[in-house]
Write a structure and sequence with these properties.
The structure is a homodimer of 327-residue chains. Chain A has 327 residues and is an alpha/beta fold. Chain A contains 13 helices and twelve strands. Chain A has two domains: 195 residues, Alpha-Beta Complex (inorganic pyrophosphatase (n-terminal core)); 125 residues, Diaminopimelate Epimerase, Chain A, domain 1 (Roll), CATH 3.10.310.30. Chains A, B: InterPro entries: DDH_dom, DHH_sf, DHHA1_dom, Oligoribo/pAp-PDE_c-di-AMP_PDE.
Chain lengths: 327, 327
C-alpha cells in the first residue's frame, strides 16, 4: 500500500501535511518525519496544525516548522497528507477548507473506524502508531533518506502512543522498528524519553500529589476513582492540561477492573474512564451519560456536583459489574 | 565468554543459582531463566535468595521456585551461579557459606567495579541488564531452549532495569533482544508490564502522594529532592519496599540535572541518587559519603538527621555543578 502512496505523492510539487487537532507525540512525530521525507524527494512540504504544539513536543518543531494553516500557504498545496486521524474533522479547519477547494487527499492512520472523505486511505488498526506506518514510507522508498532527526521524530510517536512500548499494540515488529530507529538515528532512548516525559513542572507534580491523595476504591475494590478540582489547580498554579495522564494512577491499583478520573473544573464534571479488564466496556459505560470512546478508554460529562457525579457514575459501573458476575 | 560459561556449567550436576539480596526484577528474571536453562540441559538447579520476593515479582516464582538457602540444599550444590551482583557480599549469607565450604563460583553481572571472590566473572557494564546477558547464555547454547516462561522472565529484567526501555543503557541490540523475547515467548509487553507496574497497593499510591508533596528544587533548579519518613510509612501503612521507583518523580522535573530520594526510616538516612545529565556523575557524588553505584544511578547512607543530610548531600552536588560550570 505504501508503494501506491509513494508514487501518488511524487506526482505533486507541494504537499500540505496535517497532524490532528490537540496534537500528541504520534501525529507530530509522523508529520515532522513525513515532511522531511517529502523534502528529501524534492517535494515541497508545509506542516499544518490549527492548535498549539504541547511544550514537551516543541523540540520536534526544530526538525520541521509546524505552522497554522493560512489561505496563502494552503493555496500553494496541490495535495494533502493527513496523519493520525480517522476523519477529515480530526484536522480542524482543514475539513471546511477542503469543501471549498478540494485537492487530492491521502490519509495514514491507525485508529479504528476510518471515515470517508479522503482520496486514499491507509488505515492499519493493528499498527502501534502512525509513526510505525511512516517508517514504512521510508522503507518503501529509500531507507537511506531516514536521518537522525526523522528517526527521533518517529521514535517519539512510537514511544508516546504505546505508553513507553508497554501496550498490547507493541509487536516484535514494533520493537524491531524501534531498534532500527535507534541504530539509524544513532541515539539512545533516554534522549527522546527525557524530552517527552521528564519535562514536568514542579507544580504539576504537586497537583498529582494532591490528586493521588483522593484515590478511592469502590464496589469491592473493582473500581478506582480519583478527582481534581478547580481549587487544586488554583492552589498549585496549574491548568487542566497538567492532568494529562493522571488516570494511569488509579488504573495502576492491583486487582481493579476500571478507573475514573473526575475533573470538577467549573461547568460540570468531565471524566476519563479506563478499563483494564476485557469484561468491562467503558465505552458502554460512558454512553449511559451521553459520552463515549473506546472499550478501554472513554470520556463523558456530568452536570455535577462532584460527589453526586462520582456516586452516579460508579453506580453505572457497578450495574455492569453485576451483569458480568451473573453471566 | 558465554562459551566458556556454558562448558563450565555443564561440568556440574547441581548448581545453586543466587539472585542478590533485596531482589529486583532483573536478578529474579535472570535467576528464573538461568535455572530453567540449567534444567533444560540436565543440570539440577536450586534458586536461592535470603530475602522476600517483592509482591509484583512473585508470579515469576511460578516459573521457578525460589527458596531460602538451607544447609541441606546448599550441600547438594557442586557449584554456584551468582547473578546481578558485583561482589559475594551482594548475595547475603552466601558470602559466609562460601568461606566455610568453597565451591566453583560463576558470576554474571552488569554493575561496575566487579570484586574478587568468584572463580569466573562475566561482567559487562554496557549491558542494559543481567537478563540481557542471560539471553546470550541461551543464544550461545541452543536458542530453542528459550520457552515462553523464560522469555517473560528475561523480558521482566530488561523492562525493570531500563525504566521501561527508556535508559541510555538500551542499545539497538537490547531492543532486538526485546523483540526476540516477544516473538519467541508469544506475548505482548502489557502482559509483563501490567504484572510488574500496574500492581500497586492503594496505600502505596497514598505514600507516593505524600512523598511527592515533599519535592523541592535546589541550586538554581538543577537538583530535585524528595523524602520519605517513617511517619509517612506508618500513616499510610506501607514499608520501605513501597518506595521502589519513587526517585523517578523528582527526576522527571524539567531542566534538573540530578535527583535524590532520601529515606529517613530509622538508623540514619538512606538515599538514591539519579543523574539525567552526562555532566553529573552520581557515583562520584555518592562516594564522597561512602556510597557508590553507577554514573547515572547510585546509593548512599548518612547518619542523619534528615534535614542536615539533605543540606550536606545537596552541598556535595552543588560543588560538582560548580566545577562543571568552571570547565
Amino acid at each position: 500500500m505504501f508503494e501506491e502512496l509513494v508514487s501518488k505523492l511524487k506526482e505533486h510539487r507541494t504537499v500540505g501535511v496535517y497532524s490532528h487537532i490537540r496534537p500528541d507525540g504520534d501525529c507530530i512525530g509522523a508529520q515532522v518525519a513525513a515532511c522531511r521525507w517529502l523534502e528529501k524527494n524534492g517535494i515541497r512540504a508545509f506542516a499544518f496544525n490549527d492548535d498549539q504544539i504541547p511544550l514537551n513536543l516543541q523540540w520536534l518543531t526544530d526538525f520541521y516548522t509546524i505552522e497554522e494553516p493560512r489561505e496563502e500557504t494552503l493555496k500553494q498545496c496541490d495535495a494533502f497528507l493527513l496523519l493520525d486521524g480517522n476523519s477529515p474533522t480530526r484536522f480542524g479547519s482543514y475539513a471546511e477548507y477542503m469543501e471549498d477547494d478540494p485537492k487530492p487527499s491521502y490519509m495514514v492512520d491507525h485508529h479504528p473506524d476510518p471515515q470517508d472523505g479522503f482520496d486514499m486511505t491507509i488505515s492499519v488498526e493493528e499498527a502501534s502508531s502512525t509513526c510505525e506506518l511512516i517508517f514504512h514510507l521510508f522503507l518503501q522508498n529509500d531507507i537511506k533518506q531516514l536521518d537522525s532527526k526523522s528517526a527521533k521524530a518517529l521514535y517519539t510517536g512510537i514511544l508516546t502512543d504505546t505508553g513507553s512500548l508497554q501496550y498490547d499494540s507493541v509487536t516484535p515488529e514494533t520493537m524491531n522498528i524501534a531498534s532500527e530507529l535507534l541504530r539509524i538515528g544513532e541515539f539512545r532512548p533516554n534522549v527522546v524519553a527525557e524530552k517527552v516525559f521528564s519535562n514536568k513542572r514542579l507544580n504539576q507534580l504537586h497537583l498529582l500529589s494532591r490528586a493521588m491523595s483522593t484515590i478511592k476504591l469502590h464496589e469491592d475494590n473493582q473500581i478506582a476513582t480519583m478527582y481534581v478540582t478547580s481549587e487544586m489547580l488554583e492552589e498549585t498554579d496549574t491548568t487542566n492540561d497538567d492532568c494529562e495522564g493522571f488516570v494511569a494512577y488509579p488504573l495502576s491499583v492491583a486487582g481493579i477492573k476500571a478507573a475514573i478520573l473526575f475533573k470538577d473544573l467549573g461547568e460540570g464534571v468531565k471524566m476519563s474512564l479506563r478499563s483494564k479488564s476485557n469484561e468491562v466496556d467503558v465505552n458502554k459505560w460512558a454512553r449511559e451519560i451521553g459520552g463515549g470512546g473506546h472499550k478501554k478508554a472513554s470520556g463523558a460529562w456530568h452536570p455535577g456536583p462532584l460527589e453526586e457525579t462520582i456516586k452516579e457514575v460508579v453506580g453505572i459501573g457497578s450495574k455492569q459489574l453485576a451483569e458480568i458476575d451473573k453471566s
